[in-house]
Amino acid sequence: MRRPATEIPVRSGLTHPMGAPRFRPMSPAGRPILIGIAGGSGSGKTLVAKTIHRDLGSDKVVIIDQDSYYKDLEEVPIADRDVRNFDHPDAFDTELLKGHLSQLRDGKAVQQPIYDYTRHARTRETRAIGEHEVIVLEGILIFWDEEMRDLFDIKVFIDADADVRFIRRLQRDIHERGRSADSVIRQYQESVRPMHLQFVEPTKRYADIILPEGGHNRVAIDLLKVKIKDLLRERGAL
User: Fold this and answer.
1) Is 66 exposed, middle or buried (0-12, 13-18, 19+ CB in 10 A)?
2) Which of 236, 207, 233 is CA-nearest to residue 16?
3) Cβ atoms within 10 Å, residue 214
4) d(CA 168, CA 98)
5) Are 24 and 102 in contact (CB under 8 A)?
6) C-beta atoms surrounding 162 within 10 Å
7) What is the mean pLDDT of residues 32-49?
8) Do the beta carbons of residue 167 and residue 62 sit within 8 Å?
9) Of 25, 43, 71, 77, whose CB has the highest number of CB atoms within 10 Å?
10) 222 and 51 in contact (C-beta within 8 Å)?
11) What pLDDT is stored for residue 183 in this prediction?
12) pLDDT of the residue at 4
């Protein structure tokens, strides 16, 4: 059994569990590099993913959000949807997500669900995702499932203080997802915080790299990009 992670600070601003990062062996030729970016809600996962996407190029990198794979609650009464626990592993359709990741690694296209946060249900539309050199999956619980963990070439955990994460989540859910402040605060107290402590934080031990401060840690992100470029170079993609 893998020992719990011990954070060891290095000059870059990166920390990593159990000493030097342990990356998976290079993906076989022809397979994309799969990068997992985990961390608590509001930690800065999306900003890190978008920075990698922007700096390496949209022709090479595609971002997938675990939130798109929330289970469809279309058949659940609307009054019951708001009280569901969306921060528990059972809230996600993990089998579908694992299947899509495996297909993408094999060079096959998939139809990613599109999730409507205001209705807590999937829309009728889907997002077509085809072949890319780098696939970045970001989400709070992407390291919880062992089979899914084993798919990643690089596993990154974004570390941020709880108060920072809460403020970011509050602002995001009000402005981007049409939530009221009261509902965001209630959800944070009843499910987000306890689920983070029970399920999200423990997955830090599985990370190859622990990245403090999220997308604002430019030095750490630059080092991560160097590693990605090295992997691309090894397979002749650069």
Assistant:
1) buried
2) 207
3) 24
4) 28
5) no
6) 15
7) 95
8) no
9) 43
10) no
11) 87
12) 42
CA distance 140 to 202: 11
- 132's tokens: 């890319």
Q: Which helix (H) or strand (E) holds 165?
A: helix 162-175
List the structure tokens of 11.
């000059």
Confidence check: pLDDT of 9 > 50: no
* Domains in the chain with CATH codes: 15-234 (3.40.50.300)
* CB-based contact 129:189 (threshold 8 Å): no
pLDDT one-digit tens code per residue, 180-222: 899 899 989 999 999 999 999 999 999 999 999 877 888 999 9
CA Rg value for the chain? 18
d(CA 53, CA 134): 9
Q: Are the C-beta atoms of 98 and 151 separated by less than 8 Å?
A: yes
pLDDT for position 117: 85
Closest CA to 51 of 37, 40, 41: 37
Greatest pairwise CA separation for the chain in angstroms: 53
Q: Tens digits of per-residue pLDDT, 15-26? A: 555 444 454 544
Residues pairing with 111 in the sheet: 128
* 84/42 Cα distance (integer angstroms): 19
